[in-house]
Amino acid sequence: MNQPTDYRYLLSSRNDASKKKQSFYIKTYGCQMNERDSEKMAGLLLQMGFVAAESQDDADIVIYNTCCVRESAEDKVLGHLSILRRQKTERKFILAVGGCMTQQKDMVSLLETKHKYVDIIFGTANRHRLPEFLWRVIESGERVADISEGDENEFPEITDIPVTTREFAHKAGVNIMYGCNNFCSYCIVPYVRGREKSRPVLDVIEEIKALAKDGVKEIMLLGQNVNSYGGEWWEADVHIPATGECHKYKPEKNATFPELLKLVNEVQGIERIRFMTSHPKDFSDELIAALRDLPKVCKHVHLPLQSGSTRVLADMNRNYTKDDYISLALQLQEAIPEIAISTDIIVGYPGETEEDFADTLDVVKRIQFSGAFTFIYSKRSGTPAADRTDLIPRKTANERFDRLTSELYPIMTRKNEAKINHTFPTMVEETTGYGIYKGRINDHTLVHFRSKQELSPGDTVPVQINTAKTFYVSGTH
Ligand code: 5AD
Ligand code: SF4
């Protein structure tokens, strides 16, 4: 088994001995899982005595944590890499590329042959081996390409990094599961992130307690499909390099997702609990009750629709119909009248007819989403949909995309307008200076507001809403 301890120790000693500490810069593409992975990598590097650089232009180590869910994400990474190719001829630095993109078939060989200036290629399951890869490059100048999943007993979490390495001091994402078993026909995630495994309950709760102690007030529980939490547990040895201990992580306490929410709700110091993403097929009555009854659980659900057409949904392997989705959303709205439902929608899926698209618009009108991420279908090789020949012309897909947003945006604006003249407890997210703040209402609405008081991220204050736009509301404290 790999011993990450040695490499961490070796790199720390090296940093201690040198006059100028080496710096790193991590650029993150994609979802909140990647954001959290990057925070953990940053924690690891800080722990070894590296310092964070202001920008990639003056960093000694540049790490790209990539995404491949759509072609555009991948193109962005490749475009940015070519800028680094130029920089590599002007100054010396180590370039590491990891994350979902490198897990794709043929990507390692493409990077190895066409992007020879990349020093380290790593994957999603072996990011904890970054110290070893860095050491190999620093000491022997070799190039490293390793996307292996490694030892069965290695845990992907890095458990002993400082909890303070977060983008926001007052909120943190916490992985509760990895991978996905759903194999939606268009989606690359199950192929690059592997099978679904849940993190043991006690491990999750311990991390949240440590975060709360460190000043975190809001937790976002992360997983590709949090509703199926507890399906299969991650049973693994966790190596704690700081103490040399090796813990057997067997879940002593099983829990379903609603039960986990109850346990998180009891953690002192945590004020708000959010979660994403929910798959409509696994949304139980117990979860609706937990959302309704647990005071810290925010009244917001991100519930990807993908398409409103039952025919397309079957094609996508989503395992619910248009009617199933609508009745679930209505059930949520009935149980929790203040609930906000946001969604993901894809237009231009192969074979999508005008009638199918009309069904999507119909669901949008009936559910009145508070927000939506909208996408044009992007072919991902290796997925079942990639073999389809009945592609939708780009012009039609673009038109549908525009029609979809013209339906969605006025709904979102109206929902925000309904908040005018009402006052909401608002948690401060950012201070932008001159008494102007950004915060969030419990239902995740973004609020820009003024206050005469000096406020800090994590403070919750009442804000009266005066004006509303599509993506935010404004008010005063
Ligand atoms: N094309 C377009 N959108 C996609 N998504 C996932 N795969 C694709 C694809 N191939 C969208 C889905 C998912 C979100 C994270 O990304 O809507 O919910
Ligand atoms: Fe992709 Fe479907 Fe899994 Fe979401 S549930 S990550 S869309 S395969």
Concise synopsis of the structure shown:
It is built from 13 helices and 21 strands. By secondary structure, the chain is α/β, with parallel strands linked by helices.
Q: Please, could you describe this protein's structure?
A:
The longest helix is centred in the last third of the chain and has 24 residues, at about 395-415. The chain is globular, with a radius of gyration of 23 Å. With about 475 residues, the chain is an alpha/beta fold. The N and C termini lie far apart (about 55 Å). It has helices spanning about 5-15, 30-45, 70-90, 105-115, 130-140, 190-195, 200-215, 255-265, 285-295, 310-315, 320-335, 355-365, 395-415; strands spanning about 25-30, 50, 60-65, 95-100, 120, 145, 170-175, 175-180, 195-200, 220, 235-240, 245-250, 270-275, 300, 340-345, 370-375, 425-435, 435-440, 445-450, 460-470, 475. Iron/sulfur cluster (SF4) binds near residues 180, 183 and 225.
